[in-house]
TrEMBL record:
<dbReference type="GO" id="GO:0006508">
    <property type="term" value="P:proteolysis"/>
</dbReference>
<dbReference type="InterPro" id="IPR004134">
    <property type="entry name" value="Peptidase_C1B"/>
</dbReference>
<dbReference type="GO" id="GO:0009636">
    <property type="term" value="P:response to toxic substance"/>
</dbReference>
<dbReference type="GO" id="GO:0005737">
    <property type="term" value="C:cytoplasm"/>
</dbReference>
<keyword id="KW-0378">Hydrolase</keyword>
<dbReference type="GO" id="GO:0070005">
    <property type="term" value="F:cysteine-type aminopeptidase activity"/>
</dbReference>
<dbReference type="Pfam" id="PF03051">
    <property type="entry name" value="Peptidase_C1_2"/>
</dbReference>
<keyword id="KW-0788">Thiol protease</keyword>
<dbReference type="InterPro" id="IPR000169">
    <property type="entry name" value="Pept_cys_AS"/>
</dbReference>
<dbReference type="InterPro" id="IPR038765">
    <property type="entry name" value="Papain-like_cys_pep_sf"/>
</dbReference>
<keyword id="KW-0645">Protease</keyword>
<feature type="active site">
    <location>
        <position position="368"/>
    </location>
</feature>
<dbReference type="InterPro" id="IPR025660">
    <property type="entry name" value="Pept_his_AS"/>
</dbReference>
<feature type="active site">
    <location>
        <position position="73"/>
    </location>
</feature>
<protein>
    <recommendedName>
        <fullName>Aminopeptidase</fullName>
    </recommendedName>
</protein>
<keyword id="KW-0031">Aminopeptidase</keyword>
<comment type="similarity">
    <text>Belongs to the peptidase C1 family.</text>
</comment>
Amino acid sequence: MILVTKAIDATQLSKFKNSLKNRAEHAVLERAVTKNGILATTADYHSEVKMDPVFSIDLDTGDVANQKQSGRCWMFAALNTMRHDIKNKFKVPKDFELSQNYTYFWDKLEKANYFYENVLKTASLPTSDRKISWLMTTPQQDGGQWDMIVAIIQKYGVVPQSAMPETYNSSKSNEFNSTFNLKLRKDAVKLRQMVAEQASDAQIEKEKDKMLDDAYRMLAYSFGEPPVKFDFAYRDADKAYHLDRDLTPQKFFEKYVGWNLDDYVSIINGPTEDKPFNHMYTVDMLGNVVSGRQIRHLNVDMKTFRQVAVAQLKAGESVWFGCDVGQESDRQKGIMDTELYHKDELFDIDLNMSKAERLDYGESLMTHAMVLTGVDLVDDKPTKWKVENSWGKKVGTNGFFVMSNDWMNEFCYQVVVNKKHLPANLQNVLQEDPKVLAPWDPMGSLA
């Protein structure tokens, strides 16, 4: 059946106008919304009362960090979970941080190489192909996934922020990203031309090596060159002085973090028809370190999703998680709650969509990563969650947010937990070969 195309006509416009005038409240609502905007007009005071930042489980994690004008939330969140552990073990100061600039440098270099490899793998496809369009839209970006930070740490280790502090470009990344993506797109033209002209593997590899040499120089100028060895000095919470000399990034990770990163797994809740629960998934062309850690997600129902997060918090360990932070949230007050605004009531329109519908139709996807540091359990069931953000202390309660359990259900998509917290049947599923999702699948979105 072919639908007949019809333009809006004068009769319809007259009907629309009359329909509006027949609403007794239309004048006052028009004045309120035009003056104050949609969110302020629909904000619900009761949500703020309900989201009081008091929790039955509340981990002491120190001061919040600040990613500033960069998209490194996934990296900040991951390093924050590790520094929480360092704080507990070594009594480092509450403002201690691991160097986000260090992992940022290596992530950028590895993403460049990963991009080149994807360009070469798809060189036979026309530029009009959707995969090529997807690759060239954003050759690299600040965002990432848990498995990607693991790949970086497993290869390069970590360092304290004192060993590689922030720079202008790490804290305000737009200038670098636009310049770096220009270079990568230019390099893609060259690589595709070489493949089309049937250049030898050795010739292509030589050219790619030169491209990476250029990339390293750009990174070194913008972020500084990463340390190979460094000293680590600090005063602990008892004011005792400590000095650890000649550390490498790998030795620092081994001594001060000491995690077996293979124990930590990505759990997602993607309730769409193409992703049955209790199975493994990966995403085509998504990653950073070639031959490094693969993106792997275990898709579970929301009950299991919450249970494993609570289990890890009960064990005294914070939880990396990914969500759609812009949905139903107040950045300044630090509240994420499905009852925060009532836009449907204002416009008298049903705006409800299921979680699966929002994913399938582009209304929602993971946009931000943070850390769960607490939960309020009533009758052993979560009602609200404490969230450590990476937007500095001037938002929320000294940088911490409150998330309702309903908001978690609707807008949280990923948690990372130690696999020991999974039921035995799901631990077995972790060994399954993952189904490969398309590069543009919402579960491949980067926080």
